[in-house]
Design brief:
This protein has about 140 residues and is an all-alpha fold. The protein has helices at about 1-65, 65-80, 85-135. The chain is rod-shaped, with a radius of gyration of 24 Å.
Amino acid sequence: MNRIIKIAVTLVFLSCTLFANSFAVRMMLRYGVETYFYDKLLVAYTIGGAKGLKVELEKIPVTDKNQRESILAKDFTARLETLADPEAFLKDKVQKSKKMVYSIRGLRSAAIVIMLIIFGWQAIAKFRRTHLSIDS
């Protein structure tokens, strides 16, 4: 039974480590790029209207070296003609992307807290084992 608990704790620790240091960081980067992209287009639309939006979309593949942003630009350009209200669409996308970044950051923080609890629990258990074996 003790061995099963150690394996389970190790798996939880490993899962939290992988999530906090790999998956969450990549996901935050992805949604951060989306937030930046759609927010940039929203500013262009707010300042220059539909014409400003199209000018900004034309600049993106030329000036930005981020591959994800270029993909988003192509997708949005294809979708732009069918949008009745580009401003509402852009605001919605910005809010959803921001919400995802905050959610992922919260999950990452929770994973870090779980890792700290496990680490602290192991340190206390080791401390108690060494002091109990000396006293015996």
